[in-house]
Amino acid sequence: MDAAIQKKATMFRLSSELIDRLKELAKREHRSLNNFVECILLEVAYNEPNETTKAAIEEARSGKLRNATPIDTSSVEAMFRSAGL
To answer: Which of 38, 10, 12 is nearest to 26 (CA)?
Structure first.
């Protein structure tokens, strides 16, 4: 059996609007506020993109894709044609 995960109580000061929004999002997923926030923080703290994803993010941020021909998503065949496949 796995060892129990040690947890530590911590206090944060957040805006009332943010707390209300987080509660709403947690309720939609049938989760406690604590669990919802913990999962968000775990995702941010431990989910690092790989090198390919980092390169794609940088390419998108650079603006190089702004002048690219848009992909036609009206059908699968049209999408492949517009992507040059």
So the answer is: 38
Q: What is the pLDDT of residues 38-81, one digit of tens each?
A: 999 999 999 888 999 998 888 877 877 777 777 788 888 888 88
Whole-model pTM above 0.70?
no
Q: How many CB atoms lie within 10 A of CB 24?
A: 10
Determine the longest span between alpha carbons in the chain, in angstroms: 55
Q: Output the six-digit token pair for 50.
A: 């790989």
DSSP 15-77: -HHHHHHHHHHHHHTT--HHHHHHHHHHHHHH----HHHHHHHHHHHHTTTTTSPPP--SSHH
Element (H, E) at 78: helix 76-82
Tell me if 60 sits within 8 A of 50, measured CB to CB. Answer: no
